[in-house]
Amino acid sequence: MLEILTLCGFAFVAGLIDAVVGGGGLIQLPVLLIMLPQTVIASILGTSKFVSIAGTSIAVHQYAKQQKIEWGTTIPAMVAAFIFSFLGARVTSLLNPSLMRPVILGLLITVAIYTFSKKDFGLLQISKLSQLQQSLYSIAIGSVIGFYDGFFGPGTGSFLIFAFVSIFGYSFLMASASAKVINFATNLAALIYFAVTNNVIYALGIPMAICNILGAFIGTKLAISKGSEFVRKLFLMIVSLLIFKLGYDIIHN
């Protein structure tokens, strides 16, 4: 019982953070690894995806009701992300995802430095590209980040937000809304793979998913009510934590 309560508590916090800026996996996945040390990694990843998609679906619903989403840009990225996330999940059985850590660490440090240095970055929405350019970039972003989410995962939401702000000129709030739609697609594709291969622990996943949904509902409300400045600050905090976590993993290993 204590194990389930602990996992549910972290699932709630993960859902709240993930709904605003992504990075819920930074909280949820390590706890599953610690609490279930004898469980195969595929089952832990599958259970985490099952929990995450529950909260993400609520976040998407809330954002769609209360925040404008640029569907013309978001849908191509979502379709590409779905396809490549499934491929990424398949590759986890062939390659060691930990090989990605140094590369991702370098990218996260670059993202953090750029966002810290640009004080107005993501606070205003500025359109930069033609419709055709937006579609092409959208497919490219969905393909690359979708594959990464299926294969490795941590920081997917944060990378999506950074991409939508820096490339499309979105505000942080609008980027967060679009990121949730794409994140739903990547979670769904990876979950399909893990579910088909019997790598979801439903006895833990269902109560955790309920708590993740509650956290996502509260997180979405916070993001919409407090705006892009709040999302930007939380984004920087989560990226900094991701840098610390990946740096620790690399040194520890």
Automatic annotation (TrEMBL):
Coiled-coil ranges from the UniProt annotation: none
Statement: the UniProt record of this protein carries the keyword Membrane: yes
Superkingdom, taxonomy of origin: Bacteria
Pfam families recorded: TauE
Keyword Cytoplasm: no
Membrane-crossing segments per the record: 69-87, 99-116, 136-153, 159-179, 191-218, 230-248
Localization annotation: Cell membrane
Principal location: membrane
Annotated keywords: Cell membrane, Membrane, Transmembrane, Transmembrane helix, Transport
Membrane topology: Multi-pass membrane protein
Family from the record: Belongs to the 4-toluene sulfonate uptake permease (TSUP) (TC 2.A.102) family.
Annotated PANTHER family: MEMBRANE TRANSPORTER PROTEIN YFCA-RELATED, TRANSMEMBRANE PROTEIN YFCA
Protein known as: Probable membrane transporter protein
